[in-house]
Amino acid sequence: MQKTGSDNTLGNLTERFQTLAERKKTKLKVVEPLKSLPSWPASTRGTPNACLRSALFAGIQGNERIAYKKRTLLASVEGIEVRYLGVQLNQSDLDVWMQIVHLSRQQLPGFNVTFSAYAMLTALGRGNGKSQHEWLKESMARLGGAFVEMTFQGRDTFGERGFLRYYRDEVTQRYVVELTESMLRLFEDGYTHIEFEQRQKLRKQPLALWLHGFLSSHAAPYPLKLQTLYKLSGSSTQNIRDFKLRMGRALKALVAIGTLESFEIEEDTVKVKKQPTPSQKRHLESKPS
After folding, report:
1. How many whole angstroms from its chain centre is CA 218?
2. 49-102: pLDDT as tens digits
3. First CA to last CA across the chain, in angstroms?
4. Is the pLDDT of residue 224 over 70?
5. Exposure class string for 263-275: b at 16+ Cβ within 10 A, else e
6. Which residues does the annotated region (Disordered) include (predicted)?
7. Tell me, what's the pLDDT at 28?
8. Contact criterion met (CB below 8 Å) for 159 and 182
9. For 214-286, where are the E strands, in sequence order?
10. With the CA atoms of 180, 74, 84 and 163 taken in that order, what torsion angle do they form, in degrees rounded to the nearest 10?
11. What angle do CA 125, 126, 127 make, to 5 degrees?
12. I need a labelling partner for 7 at 20 to 30 A (CA). Which of 25, 47, 85, 256 fits?
């Protein structure tokens, strides 16, 4: 039977649809499940560079938090875009997440992490009174409720509601936590071993804590403008002059604990000198001169 013009048109459309469908299949990127987390010594806390080189975990006090009511682009270094929706996270929230990730580092993704509130607070150098237990509950809620979207090199974007999901037994105050995979994938784009003992010495100094993580993630930190550090740290100060004073105090704290050898602030630029870790030293030596 001879095909009519209508039949030919329908046949052509069907062929085009099938061709487009096949082409889409070949272009579809399959994201393989995360097989394992890297491991690190007990004295350190492995932390993705994306968390250390952005305003995702701001260097601010708890009473300075703000709430992002829409998906907001946060300051970050080149190559990483961070968008955030929810109550602002700070360095104390990073402490909690780092400790949970630390507990999970020898487990396969998908397995739950269990701990007591007492053990978590003790590990973080905090007391075990009612106010501290409430603080932990609030931090867990912030980490669980945040929406984070990360884009790397303008190519791959991962979005997830929350860094974790959890169950809490109200009688024993034991937590069962599942870490969300998109946030664990941040390790694939590079991570840093944070010296935990040094970090403990900086408690209640949020800008120094942020700066410690940021500088630890660089083998040889380059000079940076105060304005750049102001944005990256998520500072809540009203003017750059006040931030400069805070930055000076934070840098002195890092020298006191041995993170930095020296520093100087020349007008609007911060220059630091630090001794790279053994792994960072190998990295620098492997670079072509």
Report:
1. 15
2. 999 999 999 999 999 999 999 999 999 998 889 999 999 999 999 999 999 999
3. 75
4. yes
5. beeeeeebebebe
6. 269-289
7. 47
8. yes
9. 224-225, 262-266, 269-273
10. 20
11. 130
12. 25
Q: Which residue in this structure is represented by tokens 């169950």?
A: 167
Residue 274: which of 205, 198, 201 has the closest Cα? 198
Residue 229 backbone phi and psi in degrees, to 5: -65, -35
Measured over the CA atoms of residue 135, residue 141, residue 146 and residue 150, the dihedral's sign is positive
The whole model's pTM is what? 0.83
Q: Within a 10 A sphere around the Cβ of 83, how many other Cβ atoms?
A: 19
The answer to whether the Cα torsion of 127, 132, 133, 137 is positive or negative is: negative
What's phi and psi for 230, nearest 5 deg? -60, -45
Would residue 244 be called left, alpha or beta, if left means φ above 0 and alpha means ψ between -120 and 50 degrees? alpha
Q: What is the pLDDT of residues 155-187, one digit of tens each?
A: 888 888 889 999 999 999 999 999 988 888 888
Phi, psi of 117 (to 5 degrees): -60, -40
Tens-place pLDDT, residues 122-141: 999 999 999 999 999 999 99
220 within 8 A of 281, measured Cβ to Cβ: no
Hey, is 251 helix, strand or coil?
helix
Q: What is the DSSP string of 136-185?
A: HHHHHHHHHH-EEEEEETTTEEEEEE-SEEEEEETTTTEEEEEE-HHHHG
CA 195 to chain centre: 16
Domain boundaries, the chain: 44-286
Q: Are 62 and 203 contacting, i.e. CB atoms less than 8 angstroms apart?
A: no
Counting Cα atoms < 13 Å in the Cβ hemisphere of 27 gives 6
